[in-house]
Structures are given as structure tokens and as C-alpha cells.
Design a protein that fits this description.
The chain is an all-alpha fold. Helices cover about 80% and strands about 0% of the residues. It comes from Thlaspi arvense.
Length: about 350
């Protein structure tokens, strides 16, 4: 009997669809919180399997670009959420926003049960771990998560933005698409390796942090939008490289587990605590400009962590590479063993 991971995706998306319907039908705060938890549970079913599937089926010289296309859906989805939620909530009801999502997702849940069984490349257990990828990704997601939650409110209070949701949504979707695709394309062009991925991660995040930080110091709305857009363009260029590292720092058979651990880490230590912590900071200092600057500074930490990764002897487990120390250890073991 062949195990079909796509069936697991179908089950997860079914749970997601039912949970979203529950959100739209909520009658109390505790109920919508419970439904939101099940939304995350359903989402987790395909997060761990989609990237390894792409990694196996993408052309060798276009793996990063293909990953970039996939992860482009995150910023574009968040941006469309701003626009979609704001429009539906204003003209109809917030409940219809949830119900509409459920209807759109239902066909994909059905496809999960009908798709051909997914076959992933297998290998032996790996001892190679890359904590720097996760550490930098947590810091990165800490900022991005808070931006998505507090960004429109901060923009309205600092620059008196009208339709702040629409403005942030437009900037995010344009920069998210261009930045994510560019990051994957550049990594493929310079040859996709773990050290090169870390170079791109640290460089793009550092420059993006400078632009975003400077943007929040300006008094001009137009100046803010221009610099913040450049910053987001660079920051989103990290999506393909960071997930390339996550996939290739372990043996192929452990890629779903690696993606799962990375996803859990960036949410538990990143975007989940960042929004309430930013709210606490804002309540304490009562200045959205200072709060935004403090938050953006965390991107420099992410850049620093990824910069260290350039100098770590990382082995691409997907391609079956061995470091010199591993080769020497294997040779010594073959000599000692009779």
C-alpha cells in the first residue's frame, strides 16, 4: 500500500475549511479563538509537504525560483487579505469574509484526496542541523508578523493615512511578489548553495532593515511609502533562500520534519508573541514612531544571525555532499573496521 501525503493535505484543508466556516459563524470570543486554532492545525498539514515536493520536482537550476513562486503566495495572500477583508467587512459583514474563504478553499480540499500519490526523495537519517536558519527566521518573522497586525494602525497614527489597509496591502503585494521572485532568481543565478543563501539572506535583510528603519524616521508620507516599499522588497527577497537552507541542511527524508520544526519555531517565538509585545511597548511609550523603530531594529538581529551562517561549514544534504571532516572520519572508520 502506497502512503499518499496528498491525502493528509486533503484532510488538513478540510479541517481548515470547516474551522473557517466556524469563525464566520462565531457566537462568542472563546469560540472564534478555538476555530482559529483549528485553522492553524489544518494549515500545518501542507506546510511541511509542499516545499519538499517542489524541491524534488523543480529543475535543478531553478529550485530557488520555484520555491520563490510558492512563498510569494504568503505576502501576496496577506496583502489580498487586507483588501478583501476591508472591502467585504465594510460592504457586507465580517462573517462573509470567512465564509467566502471557506467556499474558495473547498475545491482544493477535494483535490487533496484525488491527486496522484506524492513520492518524496528518501535518504538516511541526518546528523546535520542548522540552528542559524531558524534563529534568523524567528527574528525576521517577529517583525513581519507585527507589521501585518500593527502596520496599518501605525501608518494611520504617524502619517494620518486614509485607507491605511489598502495602502499597506498594495505595497505588500507588489513588493512581496517582486521581492520573493527576485530572491529565488538571484540565488539560482549565483548557484544555489547554503553559503550563498546565507549571503543573500544577511545582505538583503540588512539593506531592507536600513530602508524600513529610515522610512519610519521621515515625516513625509510619500517618502515613507517609497523607502518602506524598497525595504519590503529586500526583506521579502529572503523567502526562497531561507527555505532553501531549511530543506538542504538535512537529509531528504527529514525535510518535512525540518519544515515543520521551522514553521513551529517562527510562529511560537516569532509572529505569535510579537503583536502583543509591540502592543505592550506602545502602551508604555505611547509613540507609534518609536515603537515602529524599535520593532524594525529586530531585522538587524536577523541579518547578524544569518551573516554568521556564511562562515559555518554547512553541508548540502540533498546533494549528498560531505565535508572534509566527515570524509576523513569515514576513512578512519573504514581503516579501523576489519
Amino acid at each position: 500500500m502506497v502512503f499518499n501525503p496528498f491525502r493528509l493535505i486533503g484532510v488538513g484543508l478540510t479541517v481548515w475549511t470547516i474551522a473557517v466556516l466556524g469563525c464566520g459563524s462565531s457566537f462568542a470570543f472563546w469560540f472564534i479563538v478555538l476555530c482559529r486554532m483549528f485553522v492553524g492545525l489544518g494549515e500545518a498539514s501542507f506546510i511541511s509537504l509542499a516545499a519538499p515536493f517542489i524541491d524534488d520536482n523543480a529543475p535543478h537550476k531553478q529550485k530557488a525560483v520555484w520555491l520563490g513562486v510558492f512563498y510569494m503566495c504568503i505576502p501576496s495572500g496577506v496583502a489580498l487579505g487586507y483588501v478583501y477583508g476591508g472591502y467585504v467587512g465594510k460592504h457586507f459583514s465580517w462573517r462573509y469574509a470567512f465564509w467566502g474563504e471557506a467556499v474558495l478553499m473547498a475545491p482544493f480540499a477535494v483535490l487533496g484526496f484525488l491527486m496522484k500519490p506524492l513520492q518524496l526523495k528518501d535518504a538516511e537519517t541526518s546528523k546535520n542541523k542548522n540552528h542559524l536558519q531558524a534563529g534568523g527566521y524567528v527574528s525576521y518573522n517577529f517583525v513581519i508578523g507585527a507589521y501585518s497586525y500593527w502596520g496599518p494602525k501605525a501608518g494611520y497614527n504617524i502619517y494620518k493615512m486614509k485607507n491605511a489597509d489598502m495602502i499597506f496591502g498594495a505595497v505588500t503585494i507588489i513588493c512581496g511578489i517582486i521581492g520573493t521572485l527576485s530572491g529565488g532568481f538571484i540565488l539560482d543565478r549565483v548557484t544555489a548553495t547554503i553559503p550563498n543563501a546565507f549571503k543573500l539572506l544577511s545582505g538583503a535583510t540588512f539593506l531592507g532593515a536600513i530602508f524600513c528603519f529610515t522610512a519610519f524616521t521621515l515625516k513625509s508620507l510619500n517618502g515613507f511609502i517609497a523607502l518602506f516599499a524598497l525595504g519590503e522588497l529586500l526583506v521579502f527577497a529572503t523567502q526562497a533562500p531561507v527555505n532553501y537552507v531549511c530543506l538542504h541542511c538535512v537529509e531528504p527524508s527529514l525535510r518535512p520534519l525540518s519544515m515543520a520544526i521551522s514553521t513551529v519555531a517562527i510562529h511560537i517565538f516569532g509572529d505569535v508573541p510579537s503583536s502583543p509585545l509591540v502592543g505592550i511597548v506602545q502602551d508604555h511609550i505611547n509613540s507609534w514612531r518609536k515603537t515602529a523603530l524599535i520593532l524594525t531594529s529586530v531585522l538587524f538581529l536577523a541579518a547578524a544571525i544569518w551573516f554568521i551562517g556564511i562562515f559555518i561549514n554547512s553541508v548540502d544534504r540533498f546533494n549528498g555532499e560531505e565535508s572534509e571532516s566527515e570524509k576523513q572520519r569515514r576513512q578512519e572508520q573504514s581503516i579501523v573496521t576489519p
